[in-house]
């Protein structure tokens, strides 16, 4: 860990302004990912802007009938919220499938969206990684890639996004609210929030350096049966090999997003029309163009079968 | 005391304290955070500085130059010692990869420097400023690629499982060719990491030319000798102290880089230095259980009598290293007139492979006991019955050499009864519980019992307190408690009158913790010392020791009854002795046995495997403390689930290192993976093992259980996977159509 300076601003505008002054600064909220990365010097900010004093910890109903979730609402609190449990079950289930009770107590809504990949080469500073050190290459391409992306990757990066929550947010069409140092706010659809790696894998999201997430908003409830099915090598405290978030309506139509497959939660709206025809048709439409490695080709079969399991559960 | 004839009646047989389920006497210290582990021993030396170890970032080659200027100038830095600052150091006993010194790099994360600073954070930050110029060389990292030309090996694991390159009885090839039913199958197991909770850690301090290490080590006498050898200093100038150990599993049998670099750093800094290996270094800097490729051939008659059995294994290691002795159990577990076992060893440029809990048997039983299940299936015989049919009461290699006591059949029969085996449909893929395909599997458990010389000193003071001093270690196993129970039984005092001091090399040398020999051997050493103390007490009290009964805090003889403490009124009584062994273990084979029964569910869609029930029935001589013995067995069963389902150090075969070098990437079972585990100990004694009549259980719980998991998966699904761990990707392609 490199030495760093630290400040704790009182308003979102001050926080964004503090970032604008320091190109080498990072926001810190729960710190469950950033601190680990700093200890390994995967991240080495020389200034931290602590956003824990900003409030932003309420869950409010919106005029449109949705929910506005403050950026600092802890994962535990979000998963336990009665409105979330009643109307957005897929989100509560995804949250509880992630990490551990201790981590969820600390981790925030915005921080969860910003957690970095778990690619082992990203974590080992002796190895080439374009995400950690742009231009250094990608050791994962011909290395151990069992956990890594099967679709949407590039020659520069095949990392996956590790978040469970983000997969549920994607299937629910959440929007991300931000403010920058100039006081300008914007609303980013979750679909456009996370990036594919392309030739800039160091950029996980479309956020600008001085842009602070203030809230994540859920549209009005979708109804339907909501399932989050996470498949991993052990029963708890592991990142997904594949996960599936589905919302299925009584008429058999619905939505599906996948985790563990790509650099971002993977949802292809055009494929959702296939849902009434079953998992095979849906998965093959959603995963068309996949380019797995020999290590992770099994994820394509697993994604289809996990979707099948989720659909069975939804229709049971 | 010499143990060379089977034990007769002795004070231990009273079982007033020994044999009773007893809470561990160190439990309250551990649960209240007052048991100080190596890195937390703030009080043992003043002005402790912090050392941070740098690992090499190439797997093979040379260090051309090290630039430490920026690191030395960094805040708080006291000293930097690099591998070029010292000549290549010697190797410790039974170690094969250099720990430090010189310019050669043998494996990834080999220690190349230690940075010493006033705080841990300063040392760590400065370590990133050390610039190392490497000359990398091509290496060999792929066992499967090296295996075809790996030469035969002769080996001893250091834990008693000594396997020759090849051992033959009868005519295996001829008998196998003629066998009406033949199995020829190859199994692979993965590299595994000890992944103990407490990483390797040491505080080192020099007083002139005398070195003290407060460390975390399973084998104190070995550590003392090895550190002296590595540093080139006289053994008598070294003290090693390791009273509490946060898990070892064989990873702390040996002196590792933390101890060596703490010593060198303390010298350079001129003050005590503490060093802990970071979690990533545990995987690649220390030792691991090596991967194996094992071929098992079994020939049998149609009625299920084995006529030919062969087990061959190839593993890899650093040049000069030893093979994983995965074939040893196959020499002893089943009958069969024609036999072959063989080991081959490939040179690899990966980190050093060495002992991990039940070296040899842990991976070897995965192969053998799956092969037995496959053979039973081919024969159409129940797998419990097939094993029973091929039981042997003698060493099959030397039929005039019996087992001292062997009740594998009893383990299997009782286990089958308790587990509800009779209700199992022999056909696979038939049982269903909602989304789960359900299956039951069985395997034998087998691990040899080893006896090791072990010494202790016992003191009796005027207050009647009995104090035991020995360098025996407690790696979480319960050594403190069984040693206290032994002394209490021998001296006739309650448990709370006994104080136990362990892990200090100034104490008499004990057997140490390894190879599941610790419990029986260390308590036998305490038995010997207590026997001597009883004589001293009797003499002091003017009683014939043969007539004396030590009970209820008193010494009784005839009508005489004297408080034990009275013997020490004129001064503390001290007795020291060791238990040494004759050739009983040579004349009779001492082994421990188990029947492992497992029920699994396999998700019909995703092929996720979840263990639903586990039972181990163990036959391991007298159980000294059923409570801590059960803990040992369920810990072994849990580790077996890990080996069967998830544990694997993933090798980057191009870059030459274990990629998943943290506890997020190297998965071991968590609570949610482990169901209720039942353990039954058969009520037995083995008078040939020691006066304690006990045998080891610390590894028995692991040996075979992974195969029972694998066999249960096959029973659930009809799918046989021979490549461990059995992760769901290996099952998926053969799973029934789920749609």
TrEMBL record, chain A:
Keyword set, alphabetical order: FAD, Flavoprotein
Output the InterPro entries linked to this UniProt entry. Answer: CO_DH_flav_C, CO_DH_flav_C_dom_sf, Diverse_Substr_Oxidored, FAD-bd_PCMH, FAD-bd_PCMH-like_sf, FAD-bd_PCMH_sub1, FAD-bd_PCMH_sub2, Mopterin_DH_FAD-bd
Q: Which molecular-function annotations from GO does this UniProt entry contain?
A: FAD binding; oxidoreductase activity
Q: Which domain of life is it from?
A: Bacteria
**Sorted alphabetically, which SMART domains does this protein's record hold?**
CO_deh_flav_C (SM01092)
Q: Which residues form the FAD-binding PCMH-type domain?
A: 1-223
What the entry lists under Gene3D superfamilies is as follows: 3.30.465.10, CO dehydrogenase flavoprotein, C-terminal domain, Uridine Diphospho-n-acetylenolpyruvylglucosamine Reductase, domain 2
Signal peptide bounds: none
Does the record bear Flavoprotein in its keywords?
yes
What the entry lists under SUPFAM superfamilies is as follows: CO dehydrogenase flavoprotein C-terminal domain-like (SSF55447), FAD-binding/transporter-associated domain-like (SSF56176)
Tell me the protein's name.
Xanthine dehydrogenase family protein subunit M
Organism in which the protein naturally occurs:
Methylobacterium terricola
TrEMBL record, chain B:
State one molecular function term (GO). iron ion binding
- Where is each Aldehyde oxidase/xanthine dehydrogenase a/b hammerhead domain found? 32-138
Could you identify this protein by its name?
Xanthine dehydrogenase family protein molybdopterin-binding subunit
